[in-house]
Design a protein that fits this description.
Elements: E1 2-6, H1 19-38, E2 43-47, H2 58-73, E3 77-81, H3 97-101, E4 106-107, E5 114-116, E6 119-123, H4 132-153, E7 162-168, E8 192-196, E9 202-206, E10 212-216, E11 234-239, E12 248-253, E13 260-266, H5 270-281, E14 289-296, H6 301-308, E15 317-324, H7 343-355, H8 358-371, H9 385-402, H10 419-423
Helix pairs in contact: 1-2, 7-8
The structure holds manganese (II) ion.
Manganese (II) ion binds at residues 8, 10, 49, 83.
Length: 424
């Protein structure tokens, strides 16, 4: 049986507040639905962040309804859970439940499955970090026993049913900062973990859950938290029909996306570089979004801005920033678009440099993780920003006055002394 797994759709989001970008997202979503229909999927799973805003405007509601109606006419089932973007801070009924009530889609539940042929599907809505233990870890334990008894209850053609769990959470295993739970927290007994939240495509089997496949299809277009880059976006076609353990996935690239291109431009050669960018960007049916990183020194920003205006005809939007060649190695910031960017590694290196201690760097990373909780989320009931700042200030002062007991003289991470150690 084929299922489409689509995630982080963020309908209603418009990059740079451009109407065109909002429309782009509808088109890309429609492409994912069309491709799913063409592949004759039996069902579609939307693993959260369906809307960008918990109180979406009319357009995203109407566009979603249109696709759900299309799917209903083709007898394709739609199942969903909520992401943090779908959940309002007031205890209002989440808007996607409207489609559940109208019979156009079905919300998934953590304690009783929906059955589609020989497949059982369970799902949890997004659980915020402050409630992981109560909202996920404990219910996961309960679910493990529910699943075992459901196996007997829902046999299909005398065969053991396959099982899917749908979640909208970040796994620590892939990103230490954005992670909320670990693979070892996941309940076992599932063949496929249909994940949402991370906007990159990731798939991995974990032995702690009997080699169940954990998969993020990634967002369907570049989102609010992602830099302009030429990345591919798509969704997952999941074949769960064969043997119980034989889950196969195929990642389907979305082709109607507007190109997003990042360039590094040498200022001393600006006109030649701009001409080649104009030539390249004029070759697309949808005008690209462009990010320019200008490298050079003694740049007159007014003159530069005027030169860049020539990009207006061939791009929908362009961003630019200046990287000063003379100061570039003083920042210690090793962001390199060609080599890719590992946020965890970069942060860890910077913190180690300034604190000069590996255990302290780890402590800082853990604190940053908990302080960043719900950073972009519409929830407001975790730690309030002001309180977080107070706690951070308190922790820092505590560290400052007790630092000698935390220093580890054996660890000399960097021969470059930090400002703090000079003060001693
Ligand atoms: Mn998202």
């Amino acid at each position: 049986m084929l299922i489409s797994h689509i995630s982080d759709i963020h309908l209603g989001y418009s990059q740079f507040n451009l109407q065109e970008r909002e429309e782009d997202l509808y088109e890309v979503f429609e492409e994912s639905i069309e491709k799913s229909i063409r592949e004759h999927v039996k069902a579609i799973i939307l693993s959260g962040d369906i809307f960008h805003n918990p109180k979406p405007n009319g357009a995203p509601i109407v566009r979603l309804a249109r696709e759900l109606k299309k799917l209903k006419e083709k007898s394709v089932l739609v199942f969903f859970i909520l992401g943090e973007h779908d959940i309002s801070r007031s205890n209002d009924v989440p808007l996607p439940y409207l489609f559940h009530n109208l019979g156009l889609a079905r919300r998934l539940r953590p304690d009783s499955p929906v059955q589609v042929e020989g497949v059982l599907i369970y799902g949890f809505n997004k659980e915020r970090r402050s409630n992981i233990e109560k909202g996920l870890i404990k219910p996961f334990k309960v679910l493990e026993s529910i699943v075992k008894s459901d196996e007997q209850k829902y046999t299909h053609d005398n065969k053991r049913p396959s099982k899917i769990l749908v979640l909208h959470q970040g796994l620590n295993d892939f990103n230490k900062f954005a992670g909320e739970i670990s693979s070892s927290d996941l309940p076992s007994g599932f063949d496929y973990y249909a994940m949402g939240h991370y906007h990159d495509h990731i798939e991995k089997r974990f032995s702690c859950i009997n080699d169940g496949l954990v998969a993020y299809p990634g967002s369907i277009d570049l989102g609010h938290s992602e830099p302009i880059s030429n990345v591919e976006k798509g969704f997952l076609l999941v074949d769960i029909s064969d043997s119980p353990k034989g889950v196969n996935t195929q990642w389907i690239k979305l082709e109607r996306r507007r190109p997003q291109l990042a360039y590094q431009v040498d200022y001393s050669n600006i006109s030649i570089n701009l001409n080649s960018i104009i030539k390249e960007t004029s070759g697309y049916s949808k005008k690209p979004v462009v990010d320019l990183q200008i490298v050079g020194s003694n740049i007159d920003q007014k003159i530069l801005a005027r030169q860049l205006i020539s990009l207006e005809n061939t791009t929908l939007h362009y961003n630019w920033s200046i990287t000063n060649a003379q100061h570039s190695d003083m920042t210690g910031y090793s962001y390199d678009k060609d080599k890719g960017f590992d946020m965890d590694k970069e942060m860890s290196t910077l913190i180690q440099k300034s604190l000069g201690s590996m255990p302290l760097a780890d402590l800082s990373l853990d604190l940053i993780q908990s302080f960043n909780d719900n950073h972009e989320s519409p929830y407001n009931d975790g730690l309030h920003k002001k309180k977080r700042e107070q706690i951070a200030k308190f922790l820092w002062e505590f560290y400052e006055s007790n630092r000698s007991s935390y220093e580890n003289p054996k660890v000399d991470i960097n021969n470059m002394p930090s400002e703090e150690s000079e003060e001693k």
